[in-house]
Write a structure and sequence with these properties.
The strands form five sheets. This protein has an eight-stranded mixed β-barrel with strand order 18-19-21-22-23-24-25-26. The chain has a five-stranded antiparallel sheet with strand order 2-1-5-4-3. Strands 7-6-10-9-8 form a five-stranded antiparallel sheet, with helices on both faces. The protein is built from 26 helices and 26 strands. The chain is elongated. The longest helix has 23 residues. Helix 11 packs across helix 12. It is an alpha+beta fold and 672 residues long. Helices cover 44% and strands 25% of the residues.
Length: 672
């Protein structure tokens, strides 16, 4: 900053002022210097003479608030403004409070300076002095407006924020409705507060405004006193926090809490028929396992983008968690037209997804329910949509199901079944029956398959087709599988102790195979019962191999290294080839019962399976053999073992060997 003393270009103009007893001086705002002063001003500033005062640097110790206020004056002087204010000066560090009239003074170089005329203050009480200082330095913006006109007064903070030198109160607001709200509030109680967007010199900002109806002390007209605080940072932080609280971080969808609130709000503002669509990604776990969770996240984001592109702006898309989503439709008409539109959304979401060079064949299953807001709570509505979604998955996935009462009844039955199953697992109400496997070469039982039954206290013996699906869906299959393994090992140990030469096969579910506890449990069973691993064959379905080949192969190799045998159950129902199957440590292949029941028409397929098994050195077992002609065909084609009602139904352990002699005798007689 230039602090050189500027020669006065207007000495003659100021000659008159020199004779006055009122303190007068001209202040160069840009250079923070007094460039002329009369004797009274020198006395006020405690300067020996004018030259001494002109040489002083008045910006030393000047606060930012004072500097901003002076620059505001300079800008307002360009518009002819003048000010009368109470100021405290510090000539030699001692406060001197005076009333000063400020007007603009144009210098010969074109810059705007300030002519200061000091008067006397009759109100130099400590309260008034401190009040003046507070108004000067506070960051709170204080303005007095005519009731329907311009600003009558603005403190330095308000002037510093002003988007122009003069404006009316309505012009301050970005949204005129907020001004109307303020006026309405003042008319009701004379005081009103609100947070609103306002125009400022820094652009649009959020201000917390407090307004009071009052009167102008000078004119007596009605006025409005407005105090403002800039709360933009706080408002933005809260908005961000609210956004994060209401949104899913991965997809940007609304979250469950937002959905619950929206459904609740519908009853108040839109009680018309609404619909909830619940959908999830079919076999999403396989996508994560095969391609990684990052690719899984990409799939979810792309599905969300697709969904947003086809739903209305009024429809709400929410992510409940994982791969589960809900779309809330307001004001709909039940029936074919709306459901056809949902079908179109299904088709779009089921299209293949491209990620880099990888094409992902993903699909979604959907469940739809209608509801009238206010008549059901959120959980009941979501439950209906979930029941319909479950039905879609049960019917083969990639489809839409609309909830109806029949589905609701079936779901309630399933819930009761689930509760009974939990109790049955806790009470060990499951038993094993055993179906023998017979060697076609010797006619003797060489192995048996352990098949679980539910010994229900009221319903009697319940077959697995009733409860296995529920166990798999709920995760109870792992606990059930654990109990089955324990019982199977104990029974085989008992047979061996009684001199039987037999092996035992046990079914392992996909969830069991994934469970890290499986291998330790197998090892524990061997140690506890003394059964050799070679006597146990673990059966997994062909579809289990396809789910995650790398992980499955690694797990099977670990189990095989312990000595256990591995069998592929229901072979022929998947899409395995010889090269595919050869990747896994397979000891046996079981031909699915559908191919056996279809003989001789299904002979070409059954024959190919037998050839494949021989190529990889696997034992072949035909399931579901019920007719002598089936047995004859299988024996002729070189099948190793058969299993089915032709020899024996599944039986309790004590009855397993009863038909051994009869079968062996009938087989010998037939050959004779």
């Amino acid at each position: 900053m230039d602090h050189t003393v500027t020669p006065l270009p207007f000495e003659d103009d100021f000659a008159l002022a020199r004779a006055l007893g009122t303190p007068l001086w001209v202040f160069d705002i840009d250079r923070s210097r007094v460039i002329h002063a009369n004797a009274a001003a020198c006395t006020l500033w405690q300067a020996g003479n004018e030259e001494e005062l002109r040489a002083r640097r008045l910006d030393e110790g000047m606060t930012p608030a004072v500097f901003r206020r002076l620059k505001q004056y300079q800008a307002d002087f360009e518009n002819g403004a003048e000010f009368n204010e109470l100021w405290t000066l510090y000539p030699r560090g001692e406060p001197v409070t005076v009333s000063i009239r400020f007007t603009g003074f144009r210098l010969t170089d074109g810059r705007m300076a300030m002519l200061c005329e000091a008067g006397t203050s009759d109100e130099k009480t400590p309260e008034n002095l401190r009040s003046a200082e507070a108004l000067l330095h506070t960051d709170v913006m204080i303005s007095l407006f005519e009731e329907h006109g311009s600003a009558l007064y603005m403190n330095p903070a308000a002037r510093n924020a002003a988007f122009r030198s003069s404006y009316t109160l309505p012009e301050l607001f970005v949204d005129i409705n907020k001004y109307e709200e303020l006026v309405t509030g003042l008319a009701r109680s004379s005081e009103y507060s609100l947070v609103a967007q306002v125009h400022t010199i820094a652009g649009t900002r959020w201000h917390n405004l407090s307004a009071k109806a009052c009167f102008d002390a000078v004119t007596g007209v009605s006025a409005i006193l407005v105090t403002c605080n800039d709360v933009s940072d706080l408002k933005n932080a809260r908005d961000e926090a609210n956004f994060l609280a209401q949104r899913d971080q991965l997809t940007g969808c609304f979250n469950r809490g937002s959905l619950v609130q929206r459904v609740s709000d519908l009853a108040a503002y839109n009680p018309m028929l609404a619909a909830m669509l619940f959908f999830d990604v079919d076999r999403f776990k396989q996508i994560n396992d095969r391609f990684g969770h990052e690719v899984g996240d990409v799939v979810l984001r792309k599905l969300v983008a697709r969904a947003r592109s086809v739903i209305r702006k009024s429809d709400i898309l929410c992510r409940l968690g994982g791969d589960e989503f809900v779309i809330l439709f307001e004001d709909v008409k039940r029936g074919e037209v709306f459901e056809r539109e949902i079908g179109r959304i299904l088709q779009i979401l089921c299209k293949p997804l491209q990620h880099g060079a990888t094409t992902l064949q993903s699909s979604v299953s959907m469940g739809l329910t209608y509801f009238t807001p206010g008549e059901q709570d959120f959980n009941a509505i979501l439950s209906e949509a979930d029941i319909a979604l479950y039905a879609s998955k049960a019917e083969g996935r990639g489809r839409l199901t609309v909830f109806n009462e029949a589905l609701g009844t079936a779901a309630r039955e399933r819930d009761r079944l689930e509760a009974d199953l939990k109790m049955a697992l806790e009470s060990s109400h499951f038993v094993l029956h055993y179906q023998p496997r017979v060697s076609l070469e010797s006619g003797r039982i060489v192995s048996a398959e352990a098949l679980v039954r539910w010994d229900h206290p009221e319903r009697g013996l319940v077959m697995p087709d009733v409860f296995i699906g529920v166990c798999e869906d709920t995760g109870m299959i792992q606990q059930l599988g654990h109990q089955v393994l324990e019982m199977a090992f104990e029974q085989l140990a008992s047979w061996i102790d009684n001199g039987a030469d037999i092996k035992l096969s046990v079914n392992i579910s996909p969830r069991q195979l994934e469970d890290p506890a499986l291998v330790p449990q197998l090892r524990s069973c061997v140690e506890r019962t003394g059964v050799t691993p070679e006597s146990i064959e673990l059966e997994i379905t062909e579809n289990t191999l396809i789910s995650d080949p790398g992980a499955v192969s690694k797990k099977l190799e670990e189990i095989k290294s312990m000595g256990f045998r591995i069998a592929i159950d229901d072979f022929g129902t998947g899409y395995s080839s010889l090269s595919y199957i050869s990747q896994f440590p397979v000891d046996s292949i079981k031909i699915d019962r559908r191919f056996v029941a279809g003989l001789p028409d299904s002979g070409p397929v059954a024959r190919l399976i037998l050839i494949l098994a021989r190529e990889i050195g696997a034992t072949t077992i035909a399931e579901g053999v019920e007719r002598p002609e089936e047995r004859a065909w299988l024996e002729r084609e070189g099948c190793d073992q058969i299993q089915g009602f032709l020899f024996s139904r599944p039986k309790p352990a004590a009855e397993l060997f009863e038909d051994q002699l009869e079968w062996h005798s009938s087989s010998s007689g037939a050959s004779e």
